[in-house]
Amino acid sequence: MTTPAGEIRVAMDSGGIAAGAAAVFEELCALAKNFPQLKVIPVGTPGMCYADAQVEFRVAGRPHLHFGALKPQSARLLFEEFILKGRIPSQNNPHDYMVLAARMPGSELPAKLTSIVCADTMQRGDEDILSLLKAGVGPEIEIIEAADFGFYNRGYALQFFPGGLTVADLSRDMVARALHRVQQGQLPDVGTVLRDGAQLRIASRNCGVIDPESIAAYETAGGYTALRRAIQLAPAEIVSEVLNSGLRGRGGAGYPTGKKWQLTAAESGETKYVICNGDEGDPGAFMDRSLLESDPHTVLEGLMLAGYATGASVGYFYIRAEYPLATARVQKAIAAAAAAGYLGKNILGSGFSFEARVRLGAGAYVCGEETALIASIEGKRGSPHSRPPYPSVKGLHGAPTCINNVETLASVPEIIAKGGAWYAAIGKGKSKGTKVFAVSGKIRRTQLVEVPLGVSVASVVNDLCGGLHPGKKIKAVQTGGPSGGLVPADLLETHLTYEDMAALGSIIGSGGMIVLDEDVNMVELMHFYLGFNVDESCGKCAPCRIGGFQLKRYYDKLLAGQGTEADLKQIERIAHAMQSASLCGLGKAAPSPLFATLKYFRSEYEREVKA
Amino acid sequence: MTGAVTDLSAEIDTTTSRFSAHEDNLILILHAIQDAHGYVPRESALILSERLAIPLARIYEVLTFYHYFRTSPPGEHTVVVCHGTSCWLAGSSKVLEQTRRYAESHAEIKVEQVRCVGCCGLAPLAFADKKIHTHLTDERVAAMLAEIGQSKADV
């Protein structure tokens, strides 16, 4: 092959680094040193956390692929064989690494077919797609089986190179015909030719694509054009653009973002603040970590836009202490943006001045609650106080303050760049736009996905993440963390909208989706969550402090086989008291998963009750 | 003792000078002190209360509220087991149990837990002296714990 040219992207978020991506990156840098046209770039996560440590090869003349579960040795093998020799190593030992197909389909038919990437997205396991294809083409065509195409339950999927044209929904009988058509230079008339990726990435559009530590890369990807556009307009126009977009708070509450901005903007007063809430406390949630680590400039730009729209000149990032890499990348982004003139006094000659600061959390779940978060930024205990006054009126240091979640802010630059109407056209009913979900637990493909609101829980779990491990049955999907609820298996077709989820007694929440299989004991799960809530209660109000403790004692008793029917009634009474009388969201919502387990899995409680 | 206090005093000055000596920055300053010592020594807190002109109780109400801060020295070695929901589903209770059992006969090891570090694809996981160990099984936990002894022998 001629001198290799292209890009190798190594996923270096904290998940990737934990799985050994740094060593893979170094190995590839050393290998690529002699090939000036081959760039090795550190990027954030492309979402496929199950495949860490992972790289994406975009090399001219070779099929576009991701490789996962890599070690320096396998990365070297792939570099030497796949790139330099122009062939995929024979996949004798599938445990060495994973092959994943490109996430976005190409649209061009290959002038001369060289490679086919294939998979059985039904995961039947007994279907030999490789030999089926090999029977249909000559040995000069390279055939590569991928472990994952990013979608499931769509028959056989084939991707043709050069070009990356992708066809799915193929049955066994259709494969030969699809092949024949492509070789004749015609679009297949069987199956479905895919035009779009299986996901719709707006907030996470740059994740796994650009170097998060390079402001130039962000600008090349269209970064800071929204800011440039915004400062030509009046702040009120930015507010109305966000109002029109229908964007709602992605941290869990779902309050319309534009309205929040409007309230802060309407306040008079010299000093106002905007805050990015990066205190991602729900266990099993990693959307905000991924966004901050993979594309900090997008979140920063969103915060600047919030500042411009509301009239604030200081913005804070409040980030969990457990996320050191996110903190470091945000700090780097702030320094780079300041050096480039996007922060500071009189930004780009507009008269708008804005500075951004970082504050660290210190391990307190309650600090995700906005009044507690403000107290924490002021260097105090993170105790919530009752509202009103709302932070929009009296927040940080008593000044009007607008607090938005990381993902909410990450969605804003695209809304300002493309217009509120564009965003509002995505989604379903009153739930507009897209949402990032972190899917984990007993799922085959633990990963981060971004989809339009309104898709079903089942489609995320089964069609994007491949369902459960073979032989396992789904029991429920837990959403919204320890303050969320449950979607039981027979209601998986529920649409992911704020309204549909609320009707079920659950919430979309911040986006953590924990898949539970039939081995999970719901009483044990609830006991686990109560342990979390007892640890995390700030202790200020009695319903939460004492209620949580009492509930946990009843669950201890239940699990010790000492529970009675009367205890179940008492559990419900305490939970109702907590829900109605607690001071803040933590105590009010702590019983939500409890009610959900009682509603859908009461039989499991009854099994624990002493006969 | 006087020498040690002077050192600490100078250190606090350096630390506070990195931030404006305002009580708003208390949490950031406490992070810096803990990063340097592994915990927040009482002497440091005393000096800090003078520098920031705030009562010691004001510092301790913050220190003891947040899980992240320690008021006593960490063990010679620390194992932090992630006990978020995904890790719990993948068996972190067993990891905790096995680690605690091991630590009973190894006084130099302290066992702590954390509620999710957001790397759920690698569950269950733990940090042994900040080195991450992922996809833990009985054998991998044993190997992780044995490795701690190893590095101690190296020292």
What would you say this structure looks like, in words?
The complex is a heterodimer of chains A (611) and B (155). Chain A has 611 residues and is α/β, with parallel strands linked by helices. Chain A folds into four domains: 6-193, 3-Layer(aba) Sandwich (Glutaredoxin), CATH 3.40.30; 215-423, Rossmann fold; 428-517, Ubiquitin-like (UB roll); 522-608, NADH-ubiquinone oxidoreductase 51kDa subunit, iron-sulphur binding domain (de novo design (two linked rop proteins)). Chain A has 23 helices and 21 strands. In chain A, the strands form five sheets. A five-stranded mixed β-sheet of chain A has the order 2-1-3-4-5, covered by helices on one side. A five-stranded mixed β-sheet of chain A has the order 7-6-8-9-10. A five-stranded mixed β-sheet of chain A has the order 18-17-21-19-20, with helices on both faces. In chain A, helix 4 (129-134) links the parallel strand 6 (115-120) and strand 7. In chain A, helix 18 (522-536) packs antiparallel against helix 19 (542-559). Chain A starts with 5 loop residues before the first strand and ends with a helix. Chain B has seven helices and four strands, in the order ααααβααβββα. A four-stranded mixed β-sheet of chain B has the order 2-1-3-4, covered by helices on one side. In chain B, strand 3 (126-128) and strand 4 (131-133) form a beta hairpin. Chain B is elongated, with a radius of gyration of 18 Å. The mean pLDDT of chain B is 89. At the A-B interface, helix 1, strand 17, strand 21 and helix 18 of A face helix 2, helix 4 and helix 5 of B.
Layout of helices and strands, plus pairs?
The complex is a heterodimer of chains A (611) and B (155).
Chain A: E1 6-11, H1 14-18, H2 21-32, E2 38-43, E3 55-59, E4 65-68, H3 72-85, E5 98-101, E6 115-120, H4 129-134, E7 142-145, E8 156-161, E9 165-170, H5 175-183, E10 192-193, H6 215-220, H7 225-230, H8 235-245, H9 257-266, E11 273-278, H10 287-294, H11 296-310, E12 314-319, H12 324-339, E13 355-360, H13 370-377, E14 401-405, H14 406-418, H15 420-424, E15 427-428, E16 431-432, E17 434-441, E18 447-452, H16 457-464, E19 474-479, E20 485-488, H17 498-503, E21 512-517, H18 522-536, H19 542-559, H20 565-581, H21 585-589, H22 592-600, H23 602-608
Helix pairs in contact in A: 2-3, 8-9, 8-11, 10-11, 10-12, 11-14, 18-19, 19-20
Chain B: H1 2-18, H2 26-37, H3 42-52, H4 56-65, E1 77-82, H5 85-89, H6 92-104, E2 109-114, E3 126-128, E4 131-133, H7 138-154
Parallel strand pairs in B: 1-2
Antiparallel strand pairs in B: 1-3, 3-4
Helix pairs in contact in B: 1-3, 3-4, 6-7
